[in-house]
Amino acid sequence: MDKKSFIRRLLLVIAFMLALTSGEKSKYEEVIYKLGLPQEDSPAFKEYMRSRIGTNEAEDTTLTFQDHAYIMMRSDKSKVKYYKYTDEHLQRLYEEQFSHPYEKIDLYDIDWLEEGTIVRDQKKYHLPDIVVGNKSILKVKTTSGETKLKLPVPTNTKPSVGLAAVNKESMLIEIEDYSEFNGNDPRTYLLFLKQDLSTYRIVKKDELNATIESGKLKDYLALFPKVTKEGSYLKLYDKYIYDKQANKVRKIKKADHLSRDGKYVYLNGEISPLRNGVQQIQAVDHYLKGDHQYVAQFRIDFEKIGDKADCGSNDVESAEIGYFNENYVVLDMEYEGFLAGSGGRASADIDLQQSKKQPTAYLTGDFLDEWDVPSTP
Fold first, then answer.
1. In which band, very low, low, confident or very high, does the pLDDT at 178 lie, cut at 50, 70 and 90?
2. Contact present, 189 and 216 (Cβ < 8 Å)
3. Residue 369 pLDDT more than 50?
4. Which residue of 2, 85, 185, 295 could cross-link 89, Cys pair, CB 3.0 to 4.6 Å?
5. Using CA atoms, how far apart are residues 176 and 155, in angstroms rounded to an integer?
6. Distance between CA atoms of 106 and 364, rounded to whole angstroms?
7. Rounded to the nearest 5°, which phi and psi values hold at 249?
8. What is the pLDDT of residues 98-121, one digit of tens each?
9. Distance between CA atoms of residues 344 and 25, nearest Å
10. Using H for helix, E for strand and C for coil, what is the string for the chain?
11. d(CA 199, CA 196)
12. What does the angle CA 179 – CA 180 – CA 182 come to, to the nearest 5 degrees?
């Protein structure tokens, strides 16, 4: 082959590859960028704002949602307390957000034991009384009576307890032992207990997956959230999903990000910084089957975000998921400036409710740690 023929063929190959690349890019729409946060309430925005409640002193867990009311649990040292608030109550707290579209309202400082309503009728919601007494004796009281259980922790300590899940048949109580705490996670036990107090089982948290596959917890599986309507997949702790049909606990890959409700996976969502360009989200059942069906596919450009949010730079230093659920994704980005100490931060609230192919990204940002409100939204 002479030199001219080789060059001609090489140019044809390059042209072919460029055509393929161009065709691939055209398959995906880029998000629509808007400055400021959404100016109207929506179910997905409400759920996002709800995720921001809580305090630094205690951990709050949502147990149930019915009749537009959330039943919450707070672990207060060795005792459990319950309270509730409504959708209307939550909306009143964050409606100020719509008057300040460039600054996110922080709900972390709200004390829900004061703002919310203490649950008086625990029977209605199947909520047990839970208290840790002397010598690490756990006292649990339901409508069927009271039982006392010796916890597998040193008798001279009082572990932290909390109700992780409950229904009319059973409950799941978390016990955290800090007696050998050295800065890492505490030793955690999971107590599965029937409402009638007839049977129970205590499992180390790191042995939960194997115990489920053994069948020893089959009477308590309803305590775990359904990932699919028919309940063929259940969300366990961390990034683990139980496949009931295969009787196998499956783990979401390290590089991928599982949504808060356990129903969706943001592919490569744990890579930092996030990859610029095409973003893909799958339903968990399709993800575990290994197919190529996606609930959302769209393009994002971090350089454009840096420019539009006025971060003083478009050189992305870090980009990661701050929140992810079915119809709402929040991406947090940091930008490195040309000079030492310069740059800024930006946040993109991606609303997937109206479109999964070309969603709207609502942008807020700041430059040099000072809030920068754009003069022309």
1. confident
2. no
3. no
4. 85
5. 14
6. 14
7. -85, 125
8. 888 888 877 777 777 777 889 988
9. 29
10. CCHHHHHHHHHHHHHHHHHHHHHHHHCCCECEEEECCCCCCCHHHHHHHHCCCCCCCCCEEEEEEECCEEEEEEEECCEEEEEEEEHHHHHHHHHHHHHCCCCCCCCCCCCHHHHCEECCCHHHHCCCEEEECHHHEEEEEECCEEEEEECCCCCCCCCEEEEEEECCCEEEEEEEECCCCCCCCCEEEEEEEECCCCCEEEEEHHHHHHHHHHCCCHHHHHHCCECCCCCCEEECCCCEEEECCCCEEEECCCCCEECCCCCEEECCCCCCCCCCEEEEEEEHHHHHHCCCCCCEEEEECHHHHHHHCCCCCCCEEEEEEEEEECCEEEEEEEEECCCCCCEEEEEEEEECCCCCCCCEEEEEEEECCEECCCCCC
11. 8
12. 125
Q: Pairing state of beta strands 32-35 and 360-367?
A: parallel
Decide: 312 and 335 in contact? Cβ < 8 Å: yes
Residue 208 CB contacts under 8 Å (≥ 6 apart), including other chains: 190, 236, 237
What mean pLDDT value characterizes the chain? 86
The answer, yes or no, to whether residue 28 has pLDDT greater than 70, is yes
Residue 35: pLDDT band (50, 70, 90) is very high
Q: Do residues 308 and 372 touch, judged by C-beta distance below 8 A?
A: no
Produce one character per residue of 199-218: b if its CB has 16 or more CB atoms within 10 Å, e if not: ebebbebeebbebbeeeebe
Cα dihedral sign, 206-140-146-120: negative
* pLDDT bracket for residue 1 (50, 70, 90): low
* Residues 283-306 pLDDT 10s: 999 999 999 999 999 999 999 998
> Can you name the residues that pair with 191 across neighbouring β-strands?
173, 202
The two tokens of residue 332 are 């947090």
pLDDT(36) > 60: yes
Mention every residue, 6+ apart, whose C-beta is less than 8 A from residue 92: none
Please name the amino acid found at residue 125: Y
